[in-house]
Amino acid sequence: MAGNGLTRALFKFLTKHEIISIGTKYYPTTPLETEYVEMFNYTQTMLMEIEKAEITTDSIFYNLLRDVGAENIPEKHNFYELKPAENKIEEYALVSNIIMGSDRYLYVELSNSSKIINQFSRIIIEEKGEIIEQSSTEIVSKLLSKNDAIRVAIKMIGIGLDYGLNVRAAVGMTGAAAIERSINLTKEVGDDSGVGFTKLGGEYALTFDSNFISSTATPPELQNYLFIDVIDSTKFIDDYGRDKLVELMTGVKNFMEIECNGKIEGYREGGDDLIARFPSKDLAIRAGLDTAWYILNNGAKIRAGIGKSRREAGERAQLADEIKITNPLSLVIFEMANGLYAYYIPSEFFRTVLNLFLNKKAKLIGIFILVFIAVYFMTILGYWEYSFIVVILAAIYALAS
Asked: Which string of b and e fits 22-44 if b means at least 16 CB within 10 Å?
């Protein structure tokens, strides 16, 4: 469903922002993935571009410094672009990250057999990683995120160089992908110690050809906050009562804490907003989406923002007030690369309109032709002033059917 340029153009005109996709073209392979893909497509959730990301080699490296921590990347290094990223956001890659999470596999290989491999495995475990396989020269492991894997790999490379050993590492979605990336890295840049990884669809590598002081490899102080506010909660309370609002927000709070590893930092019972902190951005986006779907299904809408601080998350949520189609939209706003994007969850009315455009084009064209013919003949017969009745009846029929 992610295509349909005509419908995306219509909502671009209505919202004044580019619509990258409606639903998703991500192909699910597990029950959890199927559940989320069905929700994206059933609710016709749209990925909206608020501020376009400019994806270049420089911006990729700047984001790497920010996410891994500049203090964890030695000054003497070589940064390679093996395959450039496309200057666009791929919606299915984003959906994949939200569903599957941010954990990544790290493959590490020594140039020669050494007992230092046991020190490497201890480092991985200390970093809350999991050892999948290990030999005298290789480790396949799983880390909490791509950024953690790159940071830990650099730490191990530094230790290896101190012992006169080359260390080759690579990060991938699976262990096999990480191993293959390591092989390609050797072909592309030679035998220098380094780590290969992907960023926004591109292939990149950091290599080191001289010793450097081993970093303590401390995680950068990046937080992921989600700010949620129920839109027009006063009207919702008038329609359904305050107890219904408390029930909804309690359900949201419990879901975030239990299912998404979130920590609630700003909520009082009976309130219409909350702030939660998450260990990763994908969990924050997932929590925001699940909340928006849940709240909309219960007769209300939310504005949500995700940021590295409480203030940034709140400011992004407030951006939703500036994006309207007659009324405020249910939006989950977040940063991607150096751009700003949002998931827009349409109301039931707009989902009906979307369904007509996406699935019932033949009926719409038929109704349009009939209305045109009826209005034409009424105008010829001198009854043009009654033409609007035909249009109204046709519209009612289209929506009711």
From this structure: bbbebebeeeebeebbebbbebb
